[in-house]
Amino acid sequence: MWDLRLHRLDIRSTLIRQLPKEMWRLRRLRHLLVDGDGVNQDGTEIPLGSLWRSMFWLHTLETIDLTGFPARVVEKLGRLRFIRVLSIIWALNQCIERSYQEALCSSIKAWWKLESLTIHCGIGCSMEFLEKSLCQGWCKELAVFKVKGGTFPRIPKLIAGRDKFTSIEITVCRLMPVDLSILGSLPYLQCLVLGLNFVPQEAIVIDGVGFPGLENLSVSCRVPWLTFEQGAMQQLTYLELKIADSPASQESIPSGFINLLSLSEVAIRYNVRYANSPSVKMTEEAVREQVAGHCDLFINGKRDQQDEAGDEHCLIAFSLVSIDEDRRRAAALKWAFYNGAITPAARQINASFSEDNAGSFISVQCIRWSCHACAAQS
Hints:
By secondary structure, the chain is α/β, with parallel strands linked by helices. It folds into 3 domains: about 1-170, Leucine-rich repeat, LRR (right-handed beta-alpha superhelix) (Alpha-Beta Horseshoe); about 200-310; about 315-375, no CATH class. It has helices spanning about 50-55, 70-75, 90-95, 100-110, 130-135, 175-185, 280-290, 305-310, 340-355, 370-375, and strands at about 10, 30-35, 60-65, 85-90, 115-120, 145-150, 165-170, 190-195, 205, 215-220, 225-230, 240, 265-270, 295-300, 300-305, 315-325, 330-340, 360-370. The longest helix has 15 residues, at about 340-355. The chain is elongated. The model is unreliable at about 310-378 (pLDDT under 50).
């Protein structure tokens, strides 16, 4: 077996719970994937001695459980100089003890080819030490950065100015406008999973600046008081809100969904024990009203029945896209027509828009036909 020219070994979703020490003899192995997410205690044990002995050329290592190992073992991970994709499990005590903090930061600085880093932490682990210890030049090739369970005081500045991030998962204890600016300035960010470990006291406003390529946004917050202004997140197609119980307020509800021009699906998730919570119901109803006939709504994984009933209202949304004279900024306008004639309505908007914006009208695009009868008329 050890003479095999094995390039990739994936034993996830198997009953294998321990790898033999002879693993080091698989000298051509580049990708090693085992179970482990920091939650399930049945992860596969990896013989770390083999890593240091002759597996330092690994490109992918998922997921290695570092809990219970001394700091010197964590520091030796830095020997994986060619690692590109790495996922580790990090314990609460390791977040607190300085020796572990320094060992992890030392290893991260050595992974100069790292493209994806996932850290599974205990709930509430403070990862602030990463920002204090890592300089702006850390892992220049990093495109995927996920910290699951751990928290940062705010969006770490070490993320700022990076032009390769495509996916970020992070939980913060505070979110300021400058933090949104840091995330919004990432030109290639496509997926953002943002945990807000606090209850907002005012609306979190997302304006039309930044997030040029964001397609998927997941926000976990007891009260997702988000306001999307005109031009916000123009490429966003999927929005997920993970909510929980909190004192209800008529003001602290998400708004501005009509400004998310590319949005096609919204998902709301919450624990079933909060199903009768006034704040949960208020958020759910506010979202339902805003997306009716505009995009699909799923609640705890099931398509919203009231959303399907809303299709009978025959909502037809048109997107009129114009580009100003210098052709650098795009503006979008939306109109919705209930139970009206499709063709005359479209023709009327086309004419009025063209008169007010001579030469700049590009197209009238029907975003969604909400009933088959209307589609047939077209």
